[in-house]
């Protein structure tokens, strides 16, 4: 009787799951994946493995292709080739990872051409191949496109100057980490998603013990949203020139301090001398380089030199640049090209001119450049992100509305240090690690 009841309960559970599956999949896709998608895909992976690997030529015969029949040598294909050994598929956020042991003579490249077939057979969005251990490959499947509507998992551990701004196409979080790449270039045509990305970044940096500065020559229209959290906002070229000169002076003072304390960076300074990291956000950088009159030329020259100095000296001294623009071509002058070389982190949204994409990615990776040029009008917020180690990926920022950004900036306004004088005593609140 008890066994029958258990069977009925199990059947009811399965029916409920199947009944609610379409709704779950639409609204709570991570829950759907854990409860239904993952187990069903595991069964599919197991059931199709032998046939797939045989059809794709990845299963190999353990018996020789020749045998002796009486006094004759007979050649042929052995009947049951052995598929490469499949490990236990491990659940991951929105996908699964499974390790495969290679047969002797096989290399990861043999599996590369099979990835497309695996994607179809397992009915997943993508399958990627990694090989971290000799003799093994890992097949990593993603159930759906993580860039469709990025939801960033809750982060327990936060680090200063590190901002989770979206998701990467392989399902990992997209991090803009100024400690890893000290300066960033973000380009994109109008309505491509630049401001949304900057808003996502400021939302993450706002609770941290970081001084934020803004330079926005479009009358401060974009960055004034975060004005409560900014230590200073320059909205004209004269203000920008003054602010940059002051920041260069601050950087030089830090350099002096590090030298006298025998430290190689502000992070090596003793806590009582520690200086607060600075992030300078420049929106629409082309405006800084435009020249109409002779006087402009001197001002542009000074701005260009100071930006370059900050980019060259700032990394170890906790002064970081985030340069954003619609059009950032070499036609803006040699200062821009020299500055670009110092901006290790790159983000390229959809762009309307080839020169800007070339400026953002051309010197890093030609495939990344081609991928950026394929981003369509409908893919707002999608970008190619790359750094100088040549790695690049498609990514999409979290959709942070101007209102959300304004509210966050207001909430953490008390963390905006007065300028000048960014010395930090003991941090009392905010992330400062
Ligand atoms: N990550 C995203 N997810 C969903 N929608 C997005 C995303 N990023 C941007 N969008 C949409 O695209 C619109 C334009 O984005 P945004 O204002 O960031 O573009 P922009 O490149 O800064 O444009 P402009 O240079 O004209 O200011 C936003 O209003 C939003 O609706």
UniProtKB/TrEMBL annotation:
Gene3D superfamilies: P-loop containing nucleotide triphosphate hydrolases. The keyword Cell division applies. It comes from Streptomyces kaniharaensis. Residues 170-358 form the FtsK domain. One of its GO terms (molecular function) is ATP binding. One of its GO terms (biological process) is cell division. Pfam families: FtsK_SpoIIIE. Keywords: ATP-binding, Cell cycle, Cell division, Membrane, Nucleotide-binding, Transmembrane, Transmembrane helix. The chain crosses the membrane at residues 30-47. ATP binds at residues 188-195. This is Cell division protein FtsK.
């Amino acid at each position: 009787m008890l066994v029958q009841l258990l069977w009925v309960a199990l059947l009811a559970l399965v029916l409920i799951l199947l009944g609610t599956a379409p709704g779950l999949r639409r609204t709570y896709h991570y829950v759907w994946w854990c409860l239904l998608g993952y187990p069903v895909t595991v069964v599919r992976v197991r059931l199709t493995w032998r046939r797939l690997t045989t059809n794709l030529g990845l299963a190999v015969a353990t018996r020789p292709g020749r045998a002796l029949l009486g006094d004759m040598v007979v050649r042929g294909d052995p009947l049951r080739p052995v598929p490469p050994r499949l490990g236990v598929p491990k659940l991951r956020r929105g996908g699964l990872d499974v390790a495969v042991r290679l047969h002797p003579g096989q290399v990861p490249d043999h599996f590369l051409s099979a990835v497309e077939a695996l994607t179809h057979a397992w009915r997943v969005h993508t399958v990627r191949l990694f090989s971290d251990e000799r003799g093994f490959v890992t097949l990593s499947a993603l159930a759906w496109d993580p860039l469709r509507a990025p939801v960033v998992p809750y982060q327990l551990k936060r680090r200063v100057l590190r901002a989770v701004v979206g998701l990467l196409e392989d399902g990992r979080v997209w991090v803009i980490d100024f400690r890893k790449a000290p300066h960033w270039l973000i380009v994109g045509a109008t309505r491509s998603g630049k401001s949304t990305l900057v808003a996502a970044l400021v939302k993450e940096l706002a609770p941290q013990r970081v001084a934020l500065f803004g330079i926005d020559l479009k009358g401060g229209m974009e960055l004034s949203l975060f004005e409560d959290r900014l230590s200073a906002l320059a909205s004209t070229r004269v203000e920008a020139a003054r602010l940059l000169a002051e920041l260069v002076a601050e950087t030089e003072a830090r350099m002096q301090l590090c030298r006298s304390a025998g430290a190689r960076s502000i992070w090596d300074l003793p806590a009582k001398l520690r200086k607060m990291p600075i992030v300078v956000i420049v929106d629409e950088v082309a405006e800084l380089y435009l020249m109409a009159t002779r006087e402009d030329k001197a001002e542009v020259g000074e701005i260009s030199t100071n930006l370059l100095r900050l980019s060259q000296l700032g990394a170890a001294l906790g002064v970081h640049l985030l340069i954003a623009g619609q059009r950032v071509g070499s036609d803006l002058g040699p200062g821009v090209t020299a500055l670009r070389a110092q901006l290790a982190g790159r983000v390229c949204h959809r762009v309307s001119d080839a020169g800007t994409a070339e400026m953002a990615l051309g010197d890093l990776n030609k495939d990344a450049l081609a991928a950026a040029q394929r981003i369509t009008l409908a893919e707002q917020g999608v970008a190619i992100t790359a750094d100088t180690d040549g790695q690049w990926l498609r990514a999409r920022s979290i959709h942070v509305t101007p209102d959300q950004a304004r509210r966050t900036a207001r909430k953490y306004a008390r963390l905006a240090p007065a300028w000048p004088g960014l010395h930090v005593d003991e941090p009392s609140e905010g992330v400062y690690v």
